[in-house]
Design a protein that fits this description.
The protein is an all-alpha fold and about 400 residues long. Helix content is about 65%, strand content about 0%. The protein has one domain. The longest helix has 29 residues. This is O-antigen ligase domain-containing protein.
Length: about 400
């Protein structure tokens, strides 16, 4: 494995960003642009239809899959990570999703959505492997920061285009919490430059997302596992929280932070997720072993009563609804294995703390938003990107200690 690593470290710049990760990286980056060009509003009745826009996205997914398979077939490092790391559990989850076409309420939907998750997860792995063999760890993280900034900007453009506007507003940027919060701890604690840190941290904090706030709060607990600098930050955060609790009533503090803008405190004040979860849990009890088919099951069951909702907004529930208990088990094992994979590594404390914090944040995100466990939508790509890079970087930091500059 080590013989495939190049220890001559070039620099990644804004200009070289687009091609630094080769064709896989370009395809991943260009997806944001393609989405702007072909996106359109679709009603629920059109969810399973295939129009010109859907056809282009299907063809693009096929291209991404073909390119990924080609690169990984010639890449021992990428294949090693796929088969010998927690990514193998994610791959098994997606294979099970593919098999669910055999019992799905909509086989074509389950088949394509499963193929899509395989295509993009392999593409993201190809991107990391390409970068990991050619650049230092610091430069890989820099590429990652450019990717999230690019995703935020083009996500905001897509939002404005859907609204019929010709400019990017502050509101559209603040709506990009899916593309900002998974990278929150990286942007906050790695030396990536003021504007990258300011932009991503500001969007994450001003997202007014309960799920994001809970993820950031729980993720921050692992800063105590870091070096002296991160421990200082952790104790400052804890100290600030204790002061706020002492000054304000605890319920008032929750109302003005995690449950800001809601009518009360509790799961029932989470924009309808409690009702979606109740319906999903009742439906799971009817088919606990097989489920109803990947994506198709949650889409049609939940929308039967909630016309504005397409999915469960919870990866674990999505897994069980689609593939039964085994789907839920694989989902849980992937996150647990990823966490302990990093936790058990003998790597620098600052990396371990930031990685564990980010894993926790992504896990919470995927339990409250469309993400890992369901289709390629919402926080799915940012989450898979950050976890794939964390797993790969943890390996490099363990066995290639001189990869940092």
């Amino acid at each position: 494995m080590e013989s495939a690593i190049n220890y001559s470290f070039p620099k990644i710049t804004y200009k070289s960003f687009f091609w630094a990760a080769g064709l896989p990286g370009f395809l991943l980056i260009f997806r944001s642009i393609l989405f702007i060009l072909v996106q359109r509003r679709r009603s629920f009745d059109e969810v399973g239809s295939v129009d010109a826009s859907a056809t282009i996205q299907i063809l693009y997914t096929v291209v991404c899959f073909g390119v990924s398979v080609y690169f990984l077939s010639k890449d021992s490092f990428g294949k090693f990570l796929l088969m010998k790391s927690p990514l193998f559990l994610l791959f098994l989850y997606h294979l099970l999703a593919t098999l669910s076409v055999l019992w799905s309420v909509n086989p074509s939907m389950s088949g394509f959505r499963a193929f899509e998750t395989i295509a993009y997860s392999l593409l993201i792995l190809s991107v990391f492997s390409y970068l990991g063999k050619r650049f230092s760890i610091d430069e890989v993280i820099k590429w990652l920061s450019f990717f999230f900034v690019f995703s935020i900007l083009f996500g905001a453009i897509a939002t404005e285009r859907m609204a019929g506007n010709g400019f990017i507003s502050i509101q559209a940027l603040l709506a990009e919490q899916f593309n900002s919060t998974p990278f929150f701890f990286f942007a906050l604690l790695f030396p990536l430059g003021f504007w990258i840190r300011f932009g991503i941290v500001a969007i994450s904090i001003l997202s007014f997302s309960n799920t994001s706030y809970i993820g950031m709060a729980l993720g921050a607990l692992f800063l105590a596992k870091g070096n002296t600098f991160l421990k200082v930050i952790f104790f400052c955060l804890v100290g600030s929280l204790l002061v706020l609790i002492f000054i304000f009533d605890f319920e008032e503090l929750l109302q003005n932070t995690i449950f800001y803008g809601q009518d009360g405190i509790g799961l029932e004040y989470t924009t309808g997720r409690d009702k979606i979860f109740d319906l999903a849990i009742k439906s799971m009890q009817d088919k606990p072993l097989s489920g109803y088919g990947f994506v198709a099951g949650e889409t049609f069951i939940i929308n039967d009563q909630f016309k504005a909702a397409i999915g469960a907004h919870n990866g674990l529930i999505s897994g069980i609804l689609g593939m039964g208990i085994l789907g839920g088990v694989l989902y849980f094992l992937f996150f647990a294995k990823t966490f302990f994979y990093v936790y058990s590594r003998k790597i620098e404390k600052r990396f371990k703390a930031i990685f564990l914090s980010s894993i926790t944040l992504v896990a919470i995100h995927s339990l409250g938003n469309p993400g890992i466990g369901s289709r390629v939508y919402g926080v799915w790509i940012p989450s898979i990107v950050i976890l794939t890079f964390i797993i790969g970087l943890s390996y490099l930091l363990t066995f290639q200690k001189d990869r940092t500059t």
